[in-house]
Design a protein that fits this description.
209 residues, alpha/beta, Rossmann fold, five-stranded parallel beta sheet, 5 strands, 12% strand, globular, binds P1-(5'-adenosyl)P5-(5'-thymidyl)pentaphosphate, binds sodium ion
């Protein structure tokens, strides 16, 4: 095991804000600079819970809102030990969505009893990120990036509610990034933030839970 840990760096935001694009670019750039980094994403559709989540998102199965929320959380819990091992071993994890999407999407449904406080409970105890980059894009600009896909939450009403929920969850430590710019310009800002998080992790700042 190396002496210093890796950083946990997240991308969050509503659909089509460019999370996957920036996460991929960041991992590639970090690797080119000799930083050990891996690209992670949630949901991880390859695990047992991930297969159920995938079927739900593609509307091939129906699951109660509470149950699917807990499955999304379980999908993170089942990878917690591996995540902690990698970080402790010095690998930086760049993660495309995490608990914050989990809470924003379920709470945005407005189902009675499933408010933000309820949504957060099963996430408590998962590793806390060193940086959260929230990619901000208006619904109109997101719409210009192509039509909606086929998946369950890809409707205008849901996306509006999700964006509002993310905005109400925003905390001062989040890095809010204007996502309505060229990929290369965003990437430079993203890299600065990630390198800062990696430095803090290296200098021994403990990983929160
Ligand atoms: N969910 C997820 C829950 O309900 N609970 C949970 O706990 C979790 C983890 C998963 C779904 O599950 C929900 C949320 C989601 O509904 P997903 O697989 O993450 O969904 O979603 P995707 O459809 O893969 O991704 P998104 O729609 O969110 O898009 P991204 O990743 O934000 O955007 P990206 O990078 O794919 O880019 C979208 C398009 O824009 C272009 C790209 O080329 C692409 O065409 N683009 C740009 N265009 C112009 N300028 C830029 N700067 C651009 N950057 C990208
Ligand atoms: Na994506």
């Amino acid at each position: 095991m190396s002496a210093s840990r890796g950083a946990l760096v997240l991308f969050e935001g509503a659909d089509r804000c460019g999370k996957s694009t920036q996460a991929r670019r960041l991992v590639k750039t970090l690797e080119q600079r000799g930083v050990r980094a891996e690209l992670w994403r949630y949901p991880d559709r390859t695990t047992k819970t991930g297969e159920m989540i995938d079927a739900y998102l593609r509307s091939e199965s129906d699951t109660a809102d509470a149950a699917i929320h807990l499955l999304f959380a379980a999908n993170r819990w089942e990878k917690k030990a591996l995540m902690e091992r990698k970080l402790a071993d010095g690998v930086t994890l760049v993660c495309d969505r995490y608990s914050y999407s989990g809470c924003a999407f379920t709470a945005a449904k407005g189902v009675e009893g499933l408010d933000l406080t309820w949504c957060k409970a099963p996430e408590v105890g998962l590793p806390r990120p060193d940086a959260l980059m929230y990619l901000e894009l208006s619904l109109e600009d997101a719409a210009r990036r192509g039509g909606f896909g086929e998946e369950r939450y890809e409707t205008t009403e849901m996306q509006r509610a999700v964006k509002e929920m993310f905005e109400s969850m925003r905390e001062p430590w989040w890095d809010v990034i204007d996502a309505n710019r060229d990929e290369e310009v965003i990437e430079r800002e993203v890299l600065e933030i990630a390198l800062g998080a990696i430095e803090r992790a290296k200098s021994g700042e403990p990983l929160g839970t």
